[in-house]
Amino acid sequence: APAWALALAWALSAPGARALENGLARRPPMGWLAWERFRCNVDCEAEPRDCISEKLFMEMADRLAEDGWRELGYTYVNIDDCWSAMQRDASGQLVPDPKRFPRGIKALADYVHSRGLKLGIYADLGTFTCGGYPGTTLGHVEQDAQTFAQWGVDMLKLDGCYSSEQQQAEGYPKMSKALNATGRPIVYSCSWPAYQGGLPPKVNYTVLAEICNLWRNYVDIEDSWDSVLSIVDWFSAHQDVLQPAAGPGHWNDPDMLIIGNFGLSYEQARSQMALWAVMAAPLLMSTDLRTISPSAKEILQNRLMIQINQDPLGIQGRRIVKEKFHIEVFLRPLSQAASALVFFSRRTDMPFRYTTSLAKLHFPCDTVYEVQDVYSGKIISSLKTRDNFTVVVNPSGVVMWYLSPLAQPWRSLRQQGPGGGAHPILL
């Protein structure tokens, strides 16, 4: 039997356990995650500011609370690998590294909670974590779930290094049940599909949505534009499988936002944010919030962008156009009949003038929209479906629109050309 069939049998084996009804992650989780920026840096003598320690997570919590992030929804402070001691204690319990986390995880959770935030932690379903720390074998699943709940943890990312397909098929559903059994609300992030290639028949997304709140489908993001593009390519190529799997309480996770680090230009940073928002992705930043540039902060704190990402319908967007001349268009349906459009350029030469119409993008006929440019804030007060418009998209950049239908479709376009004919609108 395929691994997912075993998982389904496991998930169905307890009465009332068919779905992950923990009521959590009704919108894509937002916050901060240590891994991409700080990795497994445990050398606190050489790099006291940048090592995986309670100090780092307390300082990031302070920044989230004090620099406007928390109010926008960035509420999770997530520990990744390399936080624990190299051995479990005498009772088999995971323990944090005593030098780097001298007060323990419970004290760190209490601090994070005192700032109006939530704490996430990392474990690995296997003999070791990816970084070589103690893993969570099948015999430790319930114990570790209880430990995390007692510490006051609010999210668990469960990785999959050093485990077999069979162990994953049993262990991921088992942890789901164990977390629910603690009585503490803990968002459950699974890396399971990423270890099985992310696609059917090895991955059954119907089963996955009944086990996990979010899941990593594909490889780890790196601090480069090539990495971002490879993720966008993979998600777009397989959107027929991935897009229906996402929704309130269960999300595809294309991995962290690397905006504010070293690998992306300004245009590329704007592109990652727009594409992640339209994909209904979790927005987990992995950058140094103590030193982030004003331009990166402005991208990450764009209110309309966040509103689009957090739309309550929870429909993941799709790529709807792929032009030969390297312009792509992504569409996400939103609540109240609104939509988000992303015009994305893979060109490397110069800004490109892209002309199209909402009719060509299969918007309903005889509707008039108010359009707001998500980055510039500019507004077109009434755009008819059949009107041509032109957007200028910078190399490796985006233009992103928020479109809301107007109540009176008979309103005429404000910008009239000579003789009353509508002319292309330039944003």
What does this structure look like?
The protein has 427 residues and is α/β, with parallel strands linked by helices. The protein has two domains: 30-310, Aldolase class I (TIM Barrel, Alpha-Beta Barrel); 318-405, Immunoglobulin-like (Sandwich). It is 29% helix and 20% strand. The chain is built from 14 helices and 17 strands. The protein has helices spanning 3-12, 35-38, 54-66, 69-72, 104-114, 141-151, 165-182, 192-195, 205-209, 225-237, 239-242, 266-278, 294-300, 303-309; strands at residues 30-33, 76-78, 118-124, 155-159, 187-190, 214-216, 251-253, 283-285, 318-322, 327-333, 339-345, 352-357, 368-373, 379-384, 388-393, 398-405, 425-426. An eight-stranded parallel sheet has the order 7-6-5-4-3-2-1-8. Strands 9-10-11-16-13-14 form a six-stranded antiparallel sheet, covered by helices on one side. The model is unreliable at 14-19 and 409-425 (pLDDT under 50). Belongs to the glycosyl hydrolase 27 family. Keywords: Disulfide bond, Glycoprotein, Glycosidase, Hydrolase, Lipid metabolism, Lysosome, Signal. One of its GO terms (cellular component) is membrane. It comes from Crypturellus undulatus.
Give start-end ranges of low-pLDDT stretches: 14-19, 409-425
Structural classification? alpha/beta
Shape descriptor reads globular
Indicate how many domains the architecture comprises. Answer: 2
What is the multimeric organization of the chains shown?
single chain
End-to-end Cα distance, whole Å, is 55 Å
From the 3D coordinates, which CATH architecture of the largest domain would you assign? Alpha-Beta Barrel
* Helical content band: 25-40%
Give the mean pLDDT. 94
Classify the fold: give the CATH topology of the largest domain. Answer: TIM Barrel
